Structure formats: C-alpha cells, structure tokens
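@channel anyone free to eyeball this complex?
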Amino acid sequence: MALRTFKVYRGNDKAGELKEYQVNVEEGMVVLDVLHRIQADQENDMAIRWNCKAGKCGSCSCEINGKPKLSCMTRMNSYGPDEVITVTPIKTFPVIKDLVTDVSWNYAQNKRIKPFQPDPKKKDERGYYMMQEDVERTQEFRKCIECFLCQNVCHVLRDHDRKDAFVGPRFMIRLASLEMHPLDIADRIPEVRKDYGSGYCNITRCCTDVCPEHIQITDNAIIPLKERVVDRYYDPIAWVARKITGDKK
Amino acid sequence: MLNIKEIQTIEQDVIVIGAGGAGLRAAIESSAQGLRTGLVCKSLLGKAHTVMAEGGVAAAMGNVDKRDSWKFHFRDTMRGGKFLNDWLMVEHHAKESPDRVRELEEWGAVFDRTKEGLISQRNFGGHRFPRLAHVGDRTGLEIIRTLQDHGIHQGMDIYMEVTALELLKDGDRICGVLAYYRETGRFVIFKCKAVILATGGGGKAWKITSNSWEYTGDGYALAYEAGAELMDMEFTQFHPTGMVWPLSVKGILVTEGVRGDGGILLNNKGDRFMFKYIPEKFAPETADTVEEANRWLKADKNARRPPELLTRDVVAKAINAEVKAGRGSPHGGVFLNIATQLPGDIIKKKLPSMYHQFKELAEVDITKDPMEVGPTLHYFMGGVRVNPHTQESTTVPGLFAAGECSAGMNGANRLGGNSLSDLLVFGRLAGIGAKEYITKLSGSVNINEDQVTTAIRKATDILNREKGTNPYLIHEKLQETMQDNVGIIRIEKELETALSDIEKLKAEAALVKAPGSSQYNPGWHEALSLHSMLVTSEAVARAALIRQESRGGHTREDFPDESKEWVKYNIVSKKGPDGKMITEKLMKMDPPEHLRLIADASLEDLEAGKI
Ligand SMILES: Cc1cc2nc3c(=O)[nH]c(=O)nc-3n(C[C@H](O)[C@H](O)[C@H](O)COP(=O)(O)OP(=O)(O)OC[C@H]3O[C@@H](n4cnc5c(N)ncnc54)[C@H](O)[C@@H]3O)c2cc1C
Ligand code: SF4
Ligand code: SF4
Ligand code: FES
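replying in thread with the prediction:
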C-alpha cells in the first residue's frame, strides 16, 4: 500500500479546477478504483461514469496524464511509483460535471445513418448464409464499445470543432461495417462523402492509436470508404463494373 | 411548497424502464404495435449489463448438431432449474428462441458462422447440444448494439441517464413513473397507461459480484412498493468462475465459454476435481474419466460431457468445497486452465476478451498459464411474478416485467445462455402484453399529486438534511452482511443475522445524507438506491430462511438435500397492509401432461423421436 497523489478535474464546462487528493493505492488497482476510493471517502459527489470495470462497455473514458484512456483498464503500476496522476474529462465534448461529458452528439450521428437492409435472397428457412471469412471485416468494426476515445482525439472534431461536417472515426467504422456487411444492399456512398464528411479525414491515424479494441479504424475502414467514394465520383467505370459483378467489396 | 405543475410531464402510452436486451426488445415490440413508447435508462444507451454478456445466446437451431430441438432445450432448462421453473414459460422460450435469434440477423447482427455459413453454436454448461449462438466472447455487445441500432429507427423516445424512483398508480392500476434526470437532478413525471420493467438484477447488494453499479434491484423495489409480488428471490446464482485476483477486480466474470471450449478446473494438487462432484441425476450424462472428456472435446458424439460443464450451482459449490478443504489456489480460488487444452492462437480467436482481460488486469497470459477463479454473485433467477402468457404482474394491472427482473423462466438455477434468449423472447411478449392491456383499457388515468410530492420530498431530504450517514458506508455494511450471511452456503442462524442487520440498516438509510447539489451527484444516486437494495436483500434473506432445503442456487447447510415436498412450492413476497414484507409459500401449478413427458423422458427416447 502506498500513498499517491491524484489530481482530478472538478467543475463543469464553464468553471473548474484540478483538485488534489492523497489516496492509498493497493496492488493491482486501476485508475478507476482510485477514483472510486476518492468518491467513497473524500468526495461523495464526484461525477464519473463506469459500468463493467472490464473494458467492455466504454463508459469510463477520460484523459489520464493527457492520454485518452479507459480508466478501468489503466493499471496504477503502469506509472512511476511517485508520478502524480492527473485525470481530466475527454476534451472534445462539453463537460457536464467533473469527469462526465455530454456525448449526446454521437448518438445523434448514429441516428442519421441509413439502417441495415438485408438481401432477402441470401436466406432460407434456416436463416441467412454468410461465410466466416466474409464477415470478419465487419466483425472487427462491430467490436466497437462506443467509448468515443477516437472521437475525442480526431483533430477535425477536437481542434477544429467541425462536428457540423464530419461524423468522426466511430461513425466511419459504423458506416464501413454496414457497407462491408455481406448481406446489406443499401447504398451509403453518396452520403459518406456529402453528409458524413469522409473528405475531412486526412489519415493521421490518431484515432487508431487510441482505440482500446485495437480496431484498424483508418486502414481497414476509412481508407476503403474513401476509395469507394473516389471510385464512384472520379472513376465511374470501375464502379459500374463492380455493380455489374455485384461485388460490394 | 412543492408545486407539481412545475414538474415536467411527458405523456406516452408505454414506458419501458431499462434499456438492456429485455427493455430494448420490449420497446421495439411496443413501437411496432403502434404504441407511443418511451425508453428510460440509468446509463447511456448501450451500456446496460447486456453489453457485458460474453458466452452466447441459447436457441435450439440445430445448426451444429442437427439432433437438437426445442424439446431438448426445454428438458435441459427444466432440469437446470431443478423443476421449479414455470412450465409454460420454459416451453414458450424453447420454441421461440430460434426465431428471435434469426430476427437479430435480420436487423444486422453478425454471429460467428458454421462451415455451411449459418450461425455457429457452442457448448455450454447444462445444454445437451452445442446451442449458444455467439460472437467470440462478446455476444452481449453484438446483441445490445443490434437492438440499439434497430430500435432508434422504430419511433420510440429514449431518455438516457434518467432514473425511475417510483411507479405511480391511479387506484389499482399503473398511471405513470416518477423519475429524475441524473444530469440535473430535475424530476420528471411520465404519464402512461402501462409500464414494462426491464431493470435487471440486484447483485450490488453483495461484495463479490460480476454486476455493475446499476444492479441495485430497483425493479424489484419499484414493483414491490406498487403492490407486485416477488417470487423465487432465494435463488441467486453464484457463477463459479469470477476473477479472484487482483483484489480490485475480484468478482469480474470469466465466461463459461472457457469451459465450453475445453477449459478444465484444477485444485492446488493438480487434480481435476470436478469428477468427484457429479450429482447422481447427471451421472448418466457426464463423462467419468479424463479420457472420455478428452474425446468429447474432440467432438466424439458418443462421448459424454466433461464434468466442468455441469450446471453452475454444482460447479460453484464444488469450488467452494475445494477451497474450504485447503486445496485452493494462492488467492483463494481454484485454477481454470485452457492453455493445456487448446493452441494459443485458437484461444485468442475464440476468447479474445478473456485473453485481453487477464493480460491487462491480472498480468496473466491465458494461452500459457492457468487463471485463478472463484464464485461470484452473478444473476437473480427470481423477480417480479408475472402471468406467463402476457408478462403482466399477477397483482398490479398495467405493470409488466421482462428479463432478469422477472421470475419464472429460470426456476432455481439458470443455464448459461438462457438469459440472452429470455430477454428477446419475453421482452417481445411484454410488448405484446402491453398492447393487449391498453386496447382493453377504458377511461383516462390520473396522476395522484400526493404520491408525487411525498416521493420527491423523501428524495430531496437526503440532500437537505444537515448531517447523516455516508451512503457508501451503509452500502458497504449491507454488502458485508449479504456476503457473509446470505452467500453460497446458508444456515438459519446467519440468515437471521442478515435480517436483523437489514433492519438496522433500514433505520440508518432513513437518515442518510448526501453532500453537494442535485446535479450529477453519485453520492445522492447511491443514497437513493439504498432503499432498492434493502428491499431486494430482505426478500432474498426471508425466502432463503423459509425454504428448508437445498435446490439450485439456494443451498442450506442445515437442510443439505433437495426435498420432494419443496419442489411443489414457490416462495412469494409482497408488501403487507402495515408496510412490512409478507413472505409465503405458494403451491405451484401442475404441469401439462405433454410437458411432463418431455421433462421426464430419457435422452435416448427423445433422440429416437418417441416423445
Ligand atoms: C459479465 C456478465 C456476463 C454474462 N454472460 C451471459 C451470457 O453469455 N449469456 C447469457 O445468456 N447471459 C449472460 N449474462 C447475464 C445477462 O447478461 C443478463 O442477465 C442480462 O443481460 C440482463 O438483461 P436485462 O435486459 O434484463 O437487463 P440489463 O441489460 O441489465 O439492463 C437493465 C437496464 O435497466 C436500467 N435500470 C435499472 N434500474 C433503473 C431505474 N431505476 N431507472 C431507470 N433505468 C433503470 C439500466 O440502466 C439498464 O438499462 C451475463 C451477465 C454478466 C454480468
Ligand atoms: S485518421 Fe482521420 S478520423 Fe482518424 S483521427 Fe485522423 S483525421 Fe480523424
Ligand atoms: S472505434 Fe475504438 S476508440 Fe472509437 S469508439 Fe469504438 S472502441 Fe472506442
Ligand atoms: S467501465 Fe466499462 S469500459 Fe471501463
């Protein structure tokens, strides 16, 4: 057991400060445990979000010493024994209170995306037929736990605040998961360019770097989507050929 | 003076409380039935417990083993539930699950595939055939996301981070819900004709649990206060494999999929001890040598299942006994080893999130080393007593319940995978039930202002009080007494201790104080949930005291055997006229003959199609 110094943002979107706490830390603890300890012993009203405590729900996103992280998966022993730990809310979304931010914008983006539309021809009374190798790409994207850490680091949203123009990496992979779904027959490519703003991404890969699910957001989702846009608008022959062979990939 | 006119009022036909699998499926159905539907949840959308489910969803589709059918699923569920389940619910569930799972595919879910390209299915404890449709070990995420992405386009209104405080009644019947926004602390009245509870369980009353902060038994308390009956509350499932180390993750679940895919349990002597704990009833269906168990793992259809895949109650008690006998692992569990059973790359592919979880939280590489595991409170078989045809509460018109917060489907013990299917089947049924109820309803409903103002005053007193006990401290004391006195093995004296502790804690909770304002104040939220946890704990302890036998998730040291007499009864609690809890035995319905025949049939006869 060791006494450690923590600094946690306390306040709302308008005003706030980093408050310092001394906490006893035991072997095996993660940052979320320490926050809970502060909450139970020192600051009953400190606002944080969490659910699963095992990296499965994406509730506990925050910035720890400036790095976007899930606090439930960040072990205390990944920091030096005397290092001061500073926990702040994710920066791209307005702070409601302390470490809790207003992420409702993300839910609104999801609602704008054209829903899944399966091809009725690919089914019989036993269900739909898809091969494992054909679903793996979509499954990679469907691992997303909606922690919004990628949204938090994407400079288009974070520094330029173009939430009006770009849906962000989380919803680019949502779009990719639909576009690459072997059963889906809807077409979202025009919207990918026009409404969802694929052109704003300049492939910095910051989103991929922070994804706790290790989803290859940029290489496997965004770049292929951008290629489809290019094919459609700048290389219509390739697109028509693809349409005729029925190959969506 | 509190003026109720100033409180925001929202009108809907139906309010669904809870946005896990059950709540989302109920809200989708209710919307499809043309009802104006509001969905209320404590967390953000998509973060409910359902997201954590790992292993899979049970449905007798027969994609991997063609011999499977609803009859086997029915028989397995009844036997797993030690025959205390509601026969009709189990029948309905077994017959309908395959359609509900295929429907998810229609809505965009992407399950792992068989070689033929159909939904793949894996083995799990208590299931005769490979039956669990899955996506690696993140099946719950797939299901909740599918329902969420489909649901948001069905016309329902969603109220996130809103907590229901009290069900409002007009005479006998439901007329609304009083709730508050977590963000601002503002109160809101939902005026509606029917309420569907889908609030999940109450594991947070125990110290070691796989459950999150949301599982404070709110649904049980909301229903109880409104006059509903709670049934089978003594049956709390201790999952055999929770993490035991490091301390801070104690209780976090290790999916049964590890054993389904071949993982074995060992004590500190290196013995595969489960062979010693095979109950007589399951002996004919369980391998009795390592050699046979290994053949089963290689998919030899003539080999019987390894004893690690016995039902959860059996495995949890076996682990408990090994640890008590001094044969446990260094941190008070036993060893679960998959490293010796499967190649590393396959383990990572089949159990990616377990690999991740142990690597990051315990610094254990499960492809090389064994895990340390021990029992953790996981699931409530009991809950709101409902009509099996409609999911409506037996006593409160207009109140429906589905998913973990309702009772009947799982009897004394739930089989793994039967919860996710339960959510889909009974969530949908509750939506249909609400429609039927509302169609027959005549006249309008009115909110009782006194009920609202009393409830609000009680809630705000917690903030306004000069001083009082720290809510976290009361919670901790409750967890201690429930863990120590209402654990896996129970005994009369300890249950009585728990009940007297609960009485004392009720008095403390009446004077609890939360510092700070009403805006996103977890201390206040914690204080408000104490009442739910106390009602839940009392119902569990009372029922456990009355049931003088051991069955499924309920084990009494002083009554170690299953009794032929007790299988005829459920135990039901409700609020008495004096405000005290009444807990009584209730005679169970006789099963329809066609179902009894299936439940009692031998596997050979079922397979031969004789029944
Ligand atoms: C780690 C883990 C793994 C599991 N694995 C499996 C598995 O592989 N297979 C399987 O079949 N089962 C599994 N289970 C069990 C299964 O996941 C749960 O039983 C099931 O998800 C419960 O679903 P539900 O819809 O009833 O409730 P939940 O998904 O828990 O949702 C409850 C909802 O109610 C809301 N709520 C609660 N109280 C209030 C209130 N007062 N006001 C407003 N909203 C409220 C919550 O916010 C939440 O939205 C697992 C459980 C856990 C914890
Ligand atoms: S790669 Fe694109 S989406 Fe990802 S962070 Fe960079 S700009 Fe944003
Ligand atoms: S893609 Fe990764 S980082 Fe982005 S929300 Fe999903 S899980 Fe989080
Ligand atoms: S609490 Fe669920 S991801 Fe951290």
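from a first look: The two ends of chain A are 54 Å apart (CA to CA).
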